[in-house]
Amino acid sequence: MSIYVSNLSDKVEENDLKVIFSEYGYVKKIQVSLNQKTGDKRGFAVIEMATSTEEVAAIRALRGIDLMGNSLKVNRAMTEYSI
Known about the structure:
CATH architecture: 2-Layer Sandwich
CATH superfamily: RRM (RNA recognition motif) domain
Structural class: alpha+beta
Mean pLDDT: 93
Number of strands: 6
Number of helices: 2
CATH class: Alpha Beta
Strand content: 25-35%
Shape: globular
Strand order of the largest sheet: 2-3-1-6
Order of helices and strands: EHEEHEEE
Helix content: 10-25%
């Protein structure tokens, strides 16, 4: 399971997300989505934490918080294997 975070400010950096999500466990990977042609941030990221328990805790705690003027949308990431 991974976490999908959207409604990100274009000022948010990977380290900003790591600091916030690390409060709920070990962050294994963060991927901030970029436009391949322009390099501009696309407003969302996928975060993988060490355990599903940590991911659930982070989702519950961080959904709707304000980060750099934007209210975060934090959900379980959908995968091609999800129904």
